[in-house]
C-alpha cells in the first residue's frame, strides 16, 4: 500500500496516511492534530516503505 505524506497548513504538523489509491482518490484528509482539512500532500515521498526484516 502506498503511503501518503501530508503537512497541515494550520499547525504545520506532518503526518502519514496509508491507504489504497482508490481510497486516496476519495479521501478527505484531515489533520489528526487539529482536524483541519487544509492539508498539503507531500509528493516527495510517495512509495510505501518496505521494511526488510533481517
Ligand atoms: Zn493541524
Automatic annotation (TrEMBL):
Pfam families: Zn_ribbon_8. Residues 1-44 form the Putative regulatory protein FmdB zinc ribbon domain. NCBIfam families: CxxC_CxxC_SSSS. This is Putative regulatory protein FmdB zinc ribbon domain-containing protein. It comes from Desulfuromonas versatilis. The lineage of its organism: Bacteria, Pseudomonadati, Thermodesulfobacteriota, Desulfuromonadia, Desulfuromonadales.
Amino acid at each position: 500500500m502506498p503511503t501518503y505524506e501530508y503537512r497541515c497548513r494550520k499547525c504545520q504538523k506532518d503526518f502519514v496516511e496509508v491507504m489504497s489509491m482508490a481510497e486516496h482518490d476519495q479521501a478527505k484528509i484531515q489533520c489528526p492534530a487539529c482536524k483541519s482539512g487544509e492539508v498539503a500532500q507531500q509528493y516527495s515521498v510517495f512509495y510505501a516503505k518496505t521494511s526488510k526484516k533481517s
